[in-house]
Amino acid sequence: MANPASSEAYVRFDGVQKSYDGVNLVVKDLNVDIPRGEFLTMLGPSGSGKTTSLMMLAGFETATHGDIFLNGRSINNVAPHKRGIGMVFQNYALFPHMTVAENLAFPLLVRKMGKAEVEEKVQRALDMVELGPFGNRRPAQLSGGQQQRVAVARALVFEPDLVLMDEPLGALDKNLREQMQYEIKHIHDRLGVTVVYVTHDQSEALTMSNRIAVFEDGRIQQLAPPVELYEKPENAFVAQFIGENNTLTGKVDALADGICEVVLDNGDRVKALDVNTDGAGTATTLSLRPERVFLNPTDGQCQNMFSGKAEEVIYLGDHIRVRMNVCGHDDFIVKVPNSSDKKGLVAGDTIPIGWSIDDCRALDA
Amino acid sequence: MSISVEATGDLALEEQKRLKADLHRSLRRNKIRALMLVAPLVVFIVVTFVAPIGNMLYRSVNDPLVSEFMPLTTSALENWDEQELPDEAIFAALAQDILQGREAKTIGKAAKRLNYEQSGMRSLVMGSVRKHKKIQAPYKESLIKIKKGWGDIDNWKVIKRLGSGLTASYYINAFDMETSPEGEVSFVPEKEQIYLKLFWRTLWMSMLITAMTVLLGYPVSYLLASLPLKTANMLMILVLLPFWTSLLVRTSSWIAMLQAQGILNDLLVWFGIIADEARIQMIYNAIGTVVAMTHILLPFMILPLYSVMKTVPPSYLRAARSLGATPWTAFWQVYLPQTVPGISAGAILVFILSIGYYITPALVGGQSGQFIGNLIAYHMQGSLNWGLAAALGVMLLVVVLGIYGIYNRVVGTNSVKLG
Fold this sequence. Notes:
The complex is a heterodimer of chains A (about 375) and B (about 425).
Chain A: E1 9-19, E2 25-35, E3 39-43, H1 50-58, E4 65-70, E5 73-74, E6 85-88, H2 100-109, H3 115-128, H4 144-156, E7 162-166, H5 174-191, E8 194-199, H6 202-208, E9 211-216, E10 219-224, H7 226-231, H8 236-241, E11 246-256, E12 259-264, E13 269-274, E14 283-288, E15 294-295, E16 304-315, E17 319-326, E18 329-337, E19 350-355, E20 360-363
Parallel strand pairs in A: 3-8, 3-9, 6-7, 7-8, 13-20
Antiparallel strand pairs in A: 1-2, 1-4, 4-5, 9-10, 11-12, 11-14, 12-13, 14-20, 15-19, 16-17, 16-19, 17-18
Helix pairs in contact in A: 2-3, 2-4
Chain B: H1 2-61, H2 65-69, H3 71-77, H4 88-104, H5 107-117, H6 121-130, H7 139-146, H8 153-163, H9 169-174, E1 177-179, E2 185-187, H10 195-226, H11 229-244, H12 247-258, H13 263-270, H14 286-309, H15 315-322, H16 327-355, H17 359-364, H18 372-382, H19 386-410
Helix pairs in contact in B: 1-19, 3-4, 5-6, 10-11, 10-14, 10-16, 11-14, 12-14, 14-16, 15-16, 18-19
């Protein structure tokens, strides 16, 4: 992306398009460079083109336009089995008629590896995912989490440089999913393989990735490290999709030094960072994270000061979630850390609130 | 303390008993309901399936004619030692049977049955009937005088054997064997063997037909299973279309297709592939039977295969490919093993159906394409030898059960999926 001529990119999508029906483009002009060893996540709602992009990289779908390069070589016409890419599927796709060890040996045997070597590698892979004694079981005799680990081990056992994962944790329950996120992350750190990971779960993406590509409508909306993606969303979709977000709509009134003044629909004026507006007089969406809003701000703390009426107060243990009516929006959410000195806020209270310019981003309409 | 523990223990036991009784009672209604639901089918099966098969089994060993129409002789022969000619008492019984049988006009049936077993017996009996006026005591002498055959100990052995009411003769016949008058059982000369040859032919042609349906049905099922549901349903109608056409129509269209002056031969001649004089005989022989039956039985292979393939997610093949397997390896080592239950179900269905097939071989089989079913039908309707038909039927039943047993051992019925 940054530099199309870069020779460092291990995987490169270059102007890739994909259409299934000849009418609609599922993937529109995809350009990504993935350096060796990166953990890149394709994140997006279903139908955004992320899985299709992954399938094109794996070789199960052909791009209708553009090139995909692997290690500097175009792989458009390379059959899937010659690409040497490991893959973990959504439902694991462990072969049910083979034992766990046979599943792991499969990629080695089709590469005509010697028996002793196969056995050794299979055992090492099993140990890596802490399933040493489970080699003789059938996949159906394992729990979901264990099957998941076998799938990961199988994708890694033949030591590919690139591993693709297609929503591999989707079928697991929440606790197990979080645990597996760390395990996969650790395996990635240890082996240094390049991973392209597809998910629609943003917390999963934030936990594991070096960089995240947010997909929507067949395009990458933003490609950035997790911190940047959350702190500095470039458009309204990303702001809305990653994390929780308050949106206020209005018109840009004045622009100066990267700061714009916005007139909201109800007439209130808000100062915000000019990130992605089309200039004075155009519509814009303001994005503001719920935890960056201050209740009862001290003087000078916030450039934007309003009063809000608490409509609903929800106690969530570590924080308190308040739904407020602010600037004509009654779905304005504020997250208040639960500290002992906070005096109780109850629904119906009207209190002053505020936020700083740096936390309020003016994005596309 | 311990007393109270014991008391509660007893109570728990009582409680358990009561609980079991309650459970039983609550389940009883459901059991009765289930029984009522299956009762009509059970009755139907008993009447239309179990009873006829029992009857067939009985007929295949039952031979009542001689004992029924020569009752005195057969009971008199019970204690005969078969070493020398029967004594006067037995001859007297025979004379009685002949005279009474003549009056009742039933002796002919016994004579006919005896003749099946040994030719010449009919004229022996009926000749004696014709000269009934000469029969007088001492019967031994007079009967031998009337017909010399009564002095032949072998003829008496035949009567004794058939008089027992139970016979293995139908089975001996069905195995292409014969009984010599001495009671020794041996195969008939190879040229005269019919049934065993036909059994082998039925078996191997059924296997061939099964193999053909697998070869032709597998790709079709795969296509159906991998297409979107809408298209698959439409193509499925094409597969089922033959089901909705009469068997006779389908078979006769094969005749139109394959006969010497038929479409296929005409085309071959037209393109100059074969000479007009050298038209290929593709029907009224084994080829005709195999072609027509493969066509007719194909849906029975496709349907179970399709339903099994439908459950194999495409991600398995993709996973195999991504792990480095060529398309062929992926198919052979990953896809095929998972469709084995479908192949098994289809194969056992087609094989068992075809082994008892009758109408298609009769229409297009000619001489070399006949199945054992055709011969059974012949003995049922043509020669009216129901005993032999029953014996052949029992043999067929045993063969099918045997094959099913072997199959069950090797493949296991658990792995069979019919849908």
